[in-house]
User: Fold these one by one.
Assistant:
Number 1:
Amino acid sequence: MLGMMMDVPLLVTSILRHAATYHGETEIVSRTAEGPIHRTTYAELWRRSQRVANMMERLGVKPGERVGTLAWNGFRHLELYYGVSGSGRVCHTINPRLFKEQIAYIVEHAQDRVIFADGTFLPLLESLADRLTGLALVIMTDEATMPRSDILPNLLCYETLLAAESEDYDWPDLDEKTASSLCYTSGTTGNPKGVLYSHRSTVLHAMASAMPDALALSAGDCVLPVVPMFHVNAWGLPYSAVMAGAKLVLPGPRLDGESLYELIEAEGVTFTAGVPTVWLALLEWTKANGKSFSTLKRLAVGGSAMPPVMIERFEKQGVTVLHAWGMTELSPIGTVASLTAKYRDRPLAEQLAVKATQGRPIYGVEFRVVDGEGHDVARDGVAFGSLLVRGPWVVERYYESERTSAHAIEGWFDTGDVVSMDPDGYVRIVDRSKDVIKSGGEWISSIDLENIAMTHPGVKEAAVVSRPDEKWGERPVLVVVPAQGASLSSADMAALYEGKIARWSVPEDLVVVEALPHTATGKLLKTEIRDIVRRELGREGDGMEAAQ
Ligand code: AMP
């Protein structure tokens, strides 16, 4: 027997409709690509999204077709999210930090009909001119600041287009499984792969990620997504924060410590989210300038492991750190490290140990940790294996791709991460399966070694990669960026590891560098770091001395 409840589809439009109706006066504050601060409200966002939807008709974009964006976090990008998806088109966010060749590949693969770009990205568009033929290019600004281009003479001006459109629009009654947005994920090898989200997956992810033991978003919050809207929809915050009716602060292109601090204090930000490198810069800036946070309550971090020493620095300033794990393929949130009741009264050190894990699965995502034969490993916080997940906001297959190898066990998505899980469900990421170090048959977690290195005051950033070794197969190598004015020796490092981990997993080699390479999404670029190590250590094999 079927239930007798209304079959109302879960559409992203319903999120904005709710915010505009019940939080209509709540502000959206943006730092524009041109520089000045811009203020609007959910009521206005709703009206402008209807204009965007009408603009789709005018530009001749048919339902289901892809609309590219090359844009920072800002109000125009937000109205594109809603206007494009809500009208049945697919909002394809393009990561401008990818290599030019990858961007061209993505635009062609997605068959984008239009690209909406911030003026900042005009040089990028110009450099891709011969690959962008046959699609409309719209610069997201007004006539006053509209750039001109000899290479791309037919650029359209966003505000001029919008001004010509009606504010009335009849949103279509879409099937909730209709595609709403598209984001490509790039590994270190092969072409990027498209993850095509649906209205249903987006709404469900927003609801689950806003729950109290996840990001705990409410109408009382002021939310600053530092994580870009061009990477996994800024972790869904343009949906979840809007659903909650929170004030939204969008930082535009200025993501340095000083600019973020100013915005946090000026707008009364209570919640923010981003990758560890952004928070490292913010911590360094506040320390150097003797500043503390007066309104910030919670800070979500993910994309890479957050070193416990950084978690502690925020917590000591009264900011609760929510360490989260996710993937583009998971919309992206899978786990959040909030404290269960039994940890709430424990000493800070014990709480910090829990917060340094990647957290517990949020409702909606099922987890399995399996060994090489596909058997589930013990949930004891020690045994580790490959993490498989399934759920309504997990990718089933990639967009227009034959690649299905991610499904090692039918119906489960293989994340490529190696993890352990404790009896309470706290997950610890040991490594990406391709980065894990196997020494003498034992696995060494590069993340564990990096976290310890980061506790040294002379270390600004640390990476651990493997080098080949005749006797042990692989050995870990520590690569560090020293803090300003610090000098580091291999003896310092050996002393730091003493007593903290098994002797055989201590790296014997130290490479000191000025900067570490990162991917377009802020992760340590381990393939390139392995190349640096190969060059610096000069030779492969055993018995290497520390290179400094
Ligand atoms: P992306 O799809 O670009 O967001 O990358 C997803 C990958 O980032 C995951 O499979 C993990 O390897 C890594 N990742 C995400 N969050 C964390 C975290 N909190 N700690 C360690 N690795 C993480």
Note: Residues 185, 232, 302-305, 323-328, 332, 358, 415-417, 429, 432, 521 surround adenosine monophosphate (CB under 6 Å).
Number 2:
Amino acid sequence: MRDLVDKLLKNRILTKEEFIQLISGRTPELSQYLFENARRVREKIYGKDIYIRGLIELTNYCKNDCYYCGIRKSNSNVSRYRLSKEQVLACCRQGYDLGFRTFVLQGGEDPYYHEKRMVDILRTIKQSYPDCAITLSLGENSYQTYAAYREAGADRYLLRHETANPMHYAQLHPDSLTAENRKRCLFDLKRLGFQVGSGFMVGSPYQRAEHLAEDLLFLAELNPHMVGIGPFISHHETPFAKEKNGTLELTLFMLAILRLMFPSLLIPSTTALGTIDPFGREQGILSGANVVMPNLSPLDVREKYMIYDNKIATGLEASEYLDMLKEQMRKIGYEVVVARGDYKQE
Ligand code: 5AD
């Protein structure tokens, strides 16, 4: 199996069959070999630097009903909230003072934040913090709306494709959502000059190695700047309440494959990794990730943005949390830096 890792290192791609073989045939020894290579590839481009992004959870209203997600429309037990422009700006101020130079505005698909409202928020953030990058993660939109966001100052956009296989996509989403439109959005975003992030859940219901191989091949086609992956974690108030969670082990393996496929990729060690294992975040970094996204949302809304059970919503002040994070990274030999942390061309 090492020969497949070596081939991936050299060619940065495998065939679907080879990816399936690599994923299904993985062993602890092979994983170690893969992780060592992933760290080496990452360090050649990004050194030991860890980029941080300040996550601002704008709204937990959502018009969609994805079967896996805790803030889906049908979950009537969610206490819904929306942040005002003033609240968002206060989060940015706090984040800036702590050393964040990227703000990520993430939310459910909430029509309250229509194009005009978002453009106003974006312009104000950009005026106040011209040295910062703005990332949006607000779901599917028209080309025109994405263009307006870009023009108003958004630099990056995160939209996970969730699963590239249309049949698997239909097993995770209601009929109103399709893999085709998801992909259309991603290619629109690239065309508009965003740094684009995609990604998928690992261990989602009905997922097989074949689907993961298709995810990797889709990403090779998209050639994104960022890819976020995390284990599926069941939420007790969704149709998938009784489904098994994804594993840390497979998520790390997939993460390291991504690093070998795309040496320059910005890969977050996600909150979901930190949720299924106390050292999940560190292990993500040691498998090739180079980004962490601490939460800058107001403390009282954090527990309301529960997309899966037990999502970390630290009650600590953001600054204390950041000191802790820096220390955790230092302990494993990495360093949190104050920078926009843009994609580096090789
Ligand atoms: N478990 C893990 N990840 C989830 N997401 C949504 N619900 C869950 C869940 N139950 C992920 C999706 C989405 C991102 C914001 O969070 O991939 O794109």
Note: The chain is about 45% helix and 10% strand.
